[in-house]
């Protein structure tokens, strides 16, 4: 039987607002039947702190530190916690909830979509596996996370290597469409990451940072050679094809599509109303 053809977009390094606007536009276009299911790869210029849809900026984020380090800032349309997008490959997957390969529950859909990421890690020679919280303490951590940092603990079916989280993803469902996007870390600056959040005191910050080292890892900490972004793209391109049993067909946005995304970026994802008022 012929494999289903999905669209593939490598949009390169985009601004924080453009990146989130394109993910939203792809969700809308797919819901309207204008485009097939889509896998997208992207990067960030400048490096950016993104926060989850429900996070409270004033309570959790040190905006002065974000500015001081010259970082971008944007609120995602998906849940989850704060992510520093820097030396990473960011991906998104847009597919209908009614797609025959998609389970109805969020966690099971995570597992199916993330199979593509799992296979990508295997192409890089890493023995990745899905995290399944086992103990009551792990399950409690998911219900009430200890910190505002995304990679602080693996959620259901997130990717783990040697016991540490290596990719973080978030999902939203709107208009009958699943949007899942996430970060695949090549390198990680923990000092910078932990300087961007607010803590009750320095001792708490130090403890969380110490714990974090045991829970999260980047690809280049685990490999004997440095994996480049191009190598990562190739591995995860093949990973998504294998993991989802699809064929990816590269696509470039038209001038009209790009203009639509840029307008959405400007009016929504660059607005204080969206980014700060929760």
Overall description:
This protein has a single domain, classed as 2-Layer Sandwich (BirA Bifunctional Protein, domain 2), CATH 3.30.930. Helix content is 40%, strand content 25%. The strands form two sheets. Strands 7-8-9-10-6-2-1-11 form an eight-stranded mixed sheet, sandwiched between helices. A three-stranded mixed sheet has the order 4-3-5. Helix 1 links the parallel strand 1 and strand 2. Helix 1 packs across helix 10 and helix 4 crosses helix 9. The chain is globular.
Secondary structure layout:
Blueprint: E1 4-14, H1 16-31, E2 38-44, E3 48-51, H2 57-60, H3 63-68, E4 72-75, E5 83-85, E6 88-96, H4 106-123, E7 128-130, H5 136-143, E8 159-161, E9 164-174, E10 177-185, H6 190-194, H7 202-215, H8 219-222, H9 229-244, E11 246-250, H10 255-269, H11 272-276
Parallel strand pairs: 1-2, 1-11, 3-4
Antiparallel strand pairs: 2-6, 3-5, 6-10, 7-8, 8-9, 9-10
Helix pairs in contact: 1-10, 4-9
Brief digest:
The protein is an alpha/beta fold and 278 residues long. Helices cover 40% and strands 25% of the residues. Strand 1, helix 1 and strand 2 form a beta-alpha-beta unit.
Q: How large is the count of helical segments?
A: 11
- Considering DSSP H and I runs of 4 or more, what fraction of the residues is helical? 25-40%
Give, in order, the helices and strands: EHEEHHEEEHEHEEEHHHHEHH
Instruction: Please tell me the overall pLDDT.
Output: 91
Structural class: alpha/beta
CATH class: Alpha Beta
CATH homology superfamily: Bira Bifunctional Protein, Domain 2
Summed up, the domain count is 1
Q: How many strands appear in the DSSP assignment?
A: 11
**Computed CA radius of gyration, to the nearest angstrom:** 18 Å
Strand order of the largest sheet: 7-8-9-10-6-2-1-11
Low-confidence stretches: 142-147, 150-154
Q: Could you say what the CATH architecture is?
A: 2-Layer Sandwich
Separation of the first and last Cα atoms = 48 Å
Q: Main β-sheet, in a few words?
A: 8 strands, mixed
Enter the CATH topology name.
BirA Bifunctional Protein, domain 2
Q: What percent of residues are in strands? A: 15-25%
Globally, the shape reads globular
């Amino acid at each position: 039987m012929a494999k289903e053809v999905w669209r593939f977009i490598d949009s390169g390094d985009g601004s924080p607002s453009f990146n989130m606007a394109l993910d939203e536009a792809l969700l809308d276009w797919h819901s309207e039947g204008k485009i097939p299911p889509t896998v997208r790869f992207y990067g960030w210029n400048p490096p950016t702190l993104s926060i989850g849809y429900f996070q409270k900026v004033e309570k959790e984020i040190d905006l002065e530190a974000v500015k001081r380090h010259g970082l971008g800032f944007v609120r995602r349309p998906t849940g989850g916690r704060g992510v520093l997008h820097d030396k990473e490959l960011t991906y998104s997957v847009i597919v209908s909830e009614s797609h025959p390969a998609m389970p109805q529950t969020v966690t099971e859909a995570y597992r199916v979509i993330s199979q593509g990421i799992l296979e990508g890690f295997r192409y890089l020679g890493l023995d990745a596996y899905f995290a399944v919280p086992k103990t009551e303490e792990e399950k409690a951590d998911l219900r009430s996370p200890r910190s505002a940092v995304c990679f602080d603990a693996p959620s259901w079916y997130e990717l783990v290597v040697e016991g540490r989280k290596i990719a973080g993803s978030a999902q939203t469902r709107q208009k009958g469409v699943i949007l899942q996007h996430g970060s695949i870390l090549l390198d990680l600056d923990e000092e910078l990451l932990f300087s961007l959040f607010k803590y009750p005191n320095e001792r708490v910050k130090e403890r969380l940072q110490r714990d974090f080292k045991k829970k999260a890892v980047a690809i280049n900490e685990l490999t004997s050679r440095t994996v480049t972004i191009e190598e990562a793209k190739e591995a995860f391109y093949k990973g998504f094809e294998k993991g989802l049993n699809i064929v990816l067909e590269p696509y470039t946005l038209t001038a009209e599509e790009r203009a639509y995304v840029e307008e959405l970026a400007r009016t929504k994802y660059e607005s204080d109303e969206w980014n700060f008022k929760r």
